[in-house]
Amino acid sequence: MRAIVVRPPGAGAELRNDVPPAPLTEGAVRVEVLECGVCGTDHDIVDGKYGRAPAGSPYLILGHENLGTVREVGPGVVGFAPGDLVVATVRRGCGRCRFCRSNRSDFCETGMFTERGIGGAHGYMAEEYVELPEYLVKVPPTLRPVAVLLEPLSVVEKAIFQGQRVLDRKEPTPGEPKTEVPTALVTGTGAIGMLASFVLTVRGYRVTAIDRHGEETLAAGLLGGIGARHVNVAGGLAAIGPHSRFDLVIEASGSAVLDFSLIEYLGPNGVLVLTGIPDAGGEPSRVPGGQLFRDVVLGNQALVGSVNANRTYFEAGLRDLTVIEERWPGRLGRMIEARRPLEEFAAVLSRRVGGTIKTVLTVRPGGAAAP
């Protein structure tokens, strides 16, 4: 079968036509891939920054954002049938710690997990794959145009959930109304930032999203269409406003320098959730640590890291996709600015082709929903 493969730790990717498909085993499902989203993690793996091939394999099949249809079910499989639309989760637990044994591998304590298309397990940029039903999430046909966004949305769902858990420590005050509408700051208007802006707006937050672009961009237009505020901070964070403070900050940029600066914009009892992964080899940052952490303590503030997502967050994402599509029909799908055939992988993975928010590689010709 055709598949996009990489050879970590080396850089580069290639389209192979001779990759053997996995055998269909008892209790497993064969899925025909329709399309795969491309994200910064894929770019970093292609650049040779990280990635790990499965044991005994000379290469790793790339890709973790996915959408496919069930082609065949093995003996003993219930609940799935040929033609079902599905998205597969990414992480496979270590099987040793209490979190992985309870299907919460996103909190793995040993670090011995594998991730399809990233580390230790083949991914989804191939014509097909075989998977256990427990790692497959069925998608209603009505969501097909946007279902490839479910994997990055699951990451957003977890980040917001974890942030809200911290905010809930404030608890309701009997006999007293809430102070005001909750506010959220989202940094970055790539896929994670945009999805976070959509979900937080649905949750009732007053959302401000920042990037380094003007109002002429697609992201700015989409944000305005859902009632969120867009701010161009190319000239500095001061553009947000001198007295702006937020209950929840979702960081989706991966900039260590920015991360430290964001604490200034946390309100009392606020929480900053970090989802971007900074370059560990970047220049050291100079920060006023004493003042910074003094403010965190005196303000009852919290900094939380969030990575990956278990099945429950994929299911939450399906619910929010449905709500978003009903509330703003077609708007979420505009995030996918380009769908390119698998043969154009080189240009897409080298960042020379595609939209500024999300680009998708179509694996099966004619199989993906029209953009």
Describe this structure in words.
By secondary structure, this protein is α/β, with parallel strands linked by helices. The chain contains nine helices and 19 strands. It has two domains: about 5-145 and about 335-360, Quinone Oxidoreductase, Chain A, domain 1 (Alpha-Beta Complex), CATH 3.90.180.10; about 155-305, 3-Layer(aba) Sandwich (Rossmann fold). Helices cover about 25% and strands about 25% of the residues. The strands form four sheets. Strands 3, 5, 6, 10, 11, 18 and 19 form a seven-stranded mixed beta sheet that branches. A six-stranded parallel beta sheet has the order 14-13-12-15-16-17. The two termini are about 25 Å apart. The model has no long low-confidence stretch (mean pLDDT about 95).
How would you summarize what this structure contains?
It contains nine helices and 19 strands. It has helices at 40-46, 98-101, 150-167, 191-202, 218-225, 256-262, 289-298, 311-327, 345-349; strands at residues 3-6, 13-16, 29-38, 60-61, 65-73, 85-88, 91-92, 114-116, 120-121, 128-131, 136-138, 183-187, 206-211, 229-232, 246-251, 266-274, 302-305, 336-341, 358-362.
